[in-house]
Specification:
This protein is about 35% helix and about 25% strand. It has a seven-stranded mixed β-sheet with strand order 1-2-3-4-5-7-6, with helices on both faces. It is of the alpha+beta class. It has one domain: Gcn5-related N-acetyltransferase (GNAT) (Aminopeptidase). The structure holds coenzyme A (COA). The site of coenzyme A has 22 residues, from strand 4, helix 3 and helix 4.
Amino acid sequence: MEIIPYNREFKRENFDCGKKPLNNYILRNATKDVKSGACTCFVILSDTDQVIGYYTLSAESIPKKDAPDKLQKKIKYEYIPVILLGRLAIDKNEFGNGYGKLLLIDSLKKCLEVTKNQIGAVAVIVDPIDGEAIAFYAKYGFTMLPTSGRMFMSMNKIELAFKE
Ligand SMILES: CC(C)(COP(=O)(O)OP(=O)(O)OC[C@H]1O[C@@H](n2cnc3c(N)ncnc32)[C@H](O)[C@@H]1OP(=O)(O)O)[C@@H](O)C(=O)NCCC(=O)NCCS
C-alpha cells in the first residue's frame, strides 16, 4: 500500500474515523495547512482514490519543564526541539486492517531520517485525542509527558526500535 503526499484533488468527503475534529481536519483544513507549510500530510488511498488514512507532521518545540526528567538533565536549552505527529486517522471501514500501524511506522521512519541526516529533534510527540488514542500510542511505546497531556517517544528509542 503506497503512502503519498496529500493533494487537494483526493476524494475525502466521506472520510469518517469516528472523531469529528479529525474528519473535519482532512476535509477542511489540510489543504491550507499543507499550502502554508504548517505541516506535511501523507495519505493512503483506496482503489477508488478515496482517502482511507492520513497523518500530519510538523516542527515543534516543548518547554524543557514539560519534558521527561531524564531529558531535562541532558538538554541545556529552555525549549526542546521535537517533531509533532499532529494527527493520525483511519477510516472506520478500514479499522483493524493494519493501516494505523503502517502510517505510524511510516511517520516515525520519516522523523528518524530527517533527524539523523538533516534537522535535529530529540523526540516525536503526539496529541492524543482521547483515551483510545492514548492506548494506541502507548502500545507502540509512547509515554505520557508529565504536564501537557501529550505523549513522547525519544529519537533514540525510535532508532532502537527500527534496529530490532
Ligand atoms: C487509532 C487508529 C489510528 C488505529 O488504526 P487501525 O488501522 O484500526 O489500527 P491497526 O489495524 O493498524 O492496528 C494495529 C494494532 O493496534 C491495535 N489497536 C488499534 N486501535 C487501538 C487502540 N485504540 N488501543 C490500543 N490498541 C489499538 C490493534 O489491535 C493492532 O494490534 P495487533 O497488531 O497487536 O493486532 C484508528 O482506530 C483511528 O483512526 N481512530 C480514530 C482517530 C484516532 O483516535 N487517532 C489517534 C490519534 S489522535
